[in-house]
Design a protein that fits this description.
By secondary structure, the chain is an alpha+beta fold. It has two domains: about 1-60, Alpha-Beta Plaits; about 65-245, Aminopeptidase (3-Layer(aba) Sandwich). It contains eight helices and eleven strands. The chain has helices spanning about 35-45, 80-85, 95-105, 120-130, 170-185, 195-200, 210-220, 235-245; strands at about 1-5, 30, 50, 60, 65-70, 90-95, 135-140, 145-155, 155-165, 190-195, 205. It has a seven-stranded mixed sheet with strand order 6-7-8-9-10-5-11, with helices on both faces. Strands 1-2-4-3 form a four-stranded mixed sheet, covered by helices on one side. Helix 3 runs antiparallel to helix 4 and helix 5 packs across helix 8. The chain is globular, with a radius of gyration of 18 Å. The N and C termini lie far apart (about 50 Å). The model has no long low-confidence stretch (mean pLDDT about 95).
Length: about 250
Amino acid sequence: MLNLADAPILGADQRLIFSLYDPSPLGIVAIHGNLSPGVLLSAYRQGVFPWYDDESPILWWSPDPRFILRTDRLHISKTNRKFLRNCPFSLSVDRAFPRVIRHCAKVPREGQVGTWIVSEMEEAYNELHRLGYAHSVEVWRGEKLVGGLYGVSLGRVFFGESMFSLESNASKSAFILLTLELRERGFRLVDCQVYTRHLENFGAEEVPREEFLALLAEGLRGETLKGPWSEMLDLDGLRRRIFGASRPLSR
């Protein structure tokens, strides 16, 4: 296992090599290090992500199998289609990233005690957002933020990090519509990291690490949509176009 205790602070255009040849049985490939932009982006490009809590050092993971969603295999149930046709929410992109990641850290989850989105991780992803690599989807009912998700985008790959929901179907709406938008823009892969039944319902599947790394390498050959997505992506418009939906409640 790689020890990154002496890893330098790296800017977004600098690279760090992770070794994947000797992961732990759980998929941990490195320990310690830092969450500077260059280290984080290097990790994602090599199929590695940080995941730890306040009581442990930074742990870097590359699990085998890997949980992914191929965008052309997105499953939308009849129930979800009906909901999206008459959705009471409005959606935005990159309008409230700090609020989304804070909600992801703070909103209680069934079966989970505490949070893995510790303060230094929150700060690190806010910095990636300022640099144009991390993005959020916000779900609103009127002026109230009721759901959302965030992740990192490199090439034509979206690395999902976390989502939250304060009302039924809020995060579902964000995930489905973002995936449809990404598919239209040539993204073939959403990295979901580790298995959840929730995302399995949308077509996500476990694949061997080597298969994931091959898909990742292919996706990274595409151009990164760097910068704020707020003017690039119109998820409300996409929803109306695909589902014949009425206009959402105004914000």
